[in-house]
Each structure stands twice: as C-alpha cells, then as structure tokens.
Amino acid sequence: MAHQALSRAFASLLDAVAPCRQIGSGFEFTEGPIWHPRDQYLLFSDIPPSIRRRWDTKGCSEFLKPSNKGNGMTYDREMNLLVCEHATSSVTRFSNGERAVLASRFEGKELNSPNDIVAASDGAIWFTDPTYGRMPVYGIERACELEFRGVYRIAPGGGPLQLVVEKGMFTQPNGLCFSPDEKLLYINDTEQTNIRVFDVDGGKLKNMRVFASGISDPATPGAPDGMKCDAEGNIWCTGPGGLWVFAPSGELIGKVAVPEFVANHHWGGPGWRTLFITASTSLYALDVKVGPHPESFMQGYI
After folding, report:
1. What does pTM read for this prediction?
2. For residue 198, what is the domain's CATH number?
3. 41-46 vs 98-103, strand pairing mode
4. Number of compact structural domains in the chain
5. d(CA 255, CA 253)
C-alpha cells in the first residue's frame, strides 16, 4: 500500500513505500496511544470493552480493566498518566497507582465526554469535550447536561476549569496539538472536517483561523480525529484513507495509507522514529524519518 506524496517535502518525512506493520489485532476500537519514553512501551485504549492495553516488544497485554472507557491519554511533566474517560465524563490523573479526578464539571454541569488531551510545558492541561462518550458502544448512552461542545484548560496547579473557545464554535472538537514552540494550538472538528489554529497567549486562545478544511472523501472512510505535530511543525491528522500531513503553511503535502479506519497515532520506539497508529481493530507501526516535537514528558528522552 503506497503512500501519496503531494509535495517533495513529504519525502523527507516518510518513504513512499514504507509498510504499515500490523503489530496487534483482534481489538474492538483502538484509540489514544501514548509512548512511555523511560520504560519503552505503548499504552492505548480499546474503548468498547473498557480496556487499557499495553504493547512492547513482547506483544500486547491488558494493562487496566475496566478503564472507564478511557480514550485520549498523555503524560504530564512528572510522568503521571492523564486520561480522558468517556464513562465518567472526566479527566483523570494516575500517579503511583492512585486515580484522581482533575476535571468533571463546568458551570455546575457534567462535562460531555473528554476525548483528547495535551499537557503544555508550563504544566497546564488542555482537552477537548465532544459527545462521543455518550454514544452506545464508545461510552454510556445518556443525555448531555451542557448545551455546547467545548475545549478547556486546567491551569498549572489546578483551579477553576477554563473554557478557552466560544461555546458555539465547534460541533465536535476532537484532536488537538501544540506547535513545537507552543505558540500555536491546533484543534480539529470531526463533523466540520476542518482544523483551526489559534495563537496561545498567557493561557488564552486568540486570533482563530481555519488552518485546513475539507478533510473528507465520500468514497473513503475517515475524518479528523487524532492529531499530532512533528519536530518540524508539520501536522499529522487522521483523515480518509489514513493520515493527512499538512505543512506549517497549511499545504497538504501527503497522505499516509493505513489498511483500516484510523482514530489516532503517536511517536515512539528507538529514536522516536516509529509512528504507532490505532486503527479500528488493530495497532500498526510505521517507520518514519521525523520525530515528534518535544513535549514536556519527553524531556531527557529526546
């Protein structure tokens, strides 16, 4: 399965015939991969059966069951695991085996279902809150208390939850990622099939503009969902057929072909040159030529 180069710049990121290797399968719907840089293993979510799974060179195993139908995950600066839980509508932190709820309500109402999450270098936590975790199979079917789908920030050290976008801006906010210097935050919308970009200023978002749109194809399954930024500032976003890669300018420079419907991805492996891809019933690994932009939990390992 050949990837599609739409610009010569794509060749510096990935070989056109680099194979997507299936390294695990038999799952129900995989999501939320995150690499542990010290202990060299990958965690990922299998949402419908409410299992957090682990992959290492020995294969796949169960890491936590039940997982409250956990979805997106990352680590904070202290290597505590941060998880978006569909079943509890919460953002949680796992430290030394202890689970703590960091966010579950806004303006007195239960969050929809936190979905994807990033931790900034200053310790702040940013996450999206669509309604997918209130659907059957992927969560627990129940009515929403909030009348909008937001994007939030938890300040370093905690405090009141901060809504960082206008209440009506997003239909279903999903993947998000920072630029390498953290001066920009990218947020995609699955239903609007676009990516917005904002300037980050003192914990607030300003100067919204559409970075990319039309990430759809009626003939090919796939939509904006998981999204990551590489070390060079390129944006890798799930889309029809696999992953769509955009230059910092917003130009679509290539498409990564994946055999199954892709939900998310994350760098890891030796030298951070393996892209782990969660795609429906399977976990894939793809050798790439570029690593991730250094997130706070990667310091000392990249």
Report:
1. 0.98
2. 2.120.10.30
3. unpaired
4. 1
5. 7
**161-183 burial by CB neighbour count: b if 16+ within 10 A, else e?**
bbebbeeebbbbbbbbbbbbebe
> 117-119 and 109-110: which strand pairing?
unpaired
The pLDDT tens digits of the residues spanning 43-96 come to 999 999 999 999 999 999 999 999 999 999 999 999 999 999 999 999 999 999
Residue 105 near residue 157, CB atoms below 8 Å: no
Position 1 confidence tier, pLDDT thresholds 50, 70, 90: low
Beta-carbon contacts of residue 181 (< 8 Å; ≥ 6 apart):
none
Pairing of strands 59-64, 274-279: unpaired
If we measure between CA atoms, which residue out of 272, 302, 298, 297 comes closest to residue 287? 272
- 302 confidence band (pLDDT: 50, 70, 90): confident
* Residue 36, CA distances (Å) to 54, 72, 75, 128 in order: 10, 14, 8, 22
Instruction: State how far the Cα of 97 lies from the Cα of 209, in Å rounded to an integer.
Output: 41
Give the CA distances from residue 240 to residues 88, 153, 224, 258, 260, in Å, rounded to whole numbers and listed in that order.
30, 29, 8, 10, 10
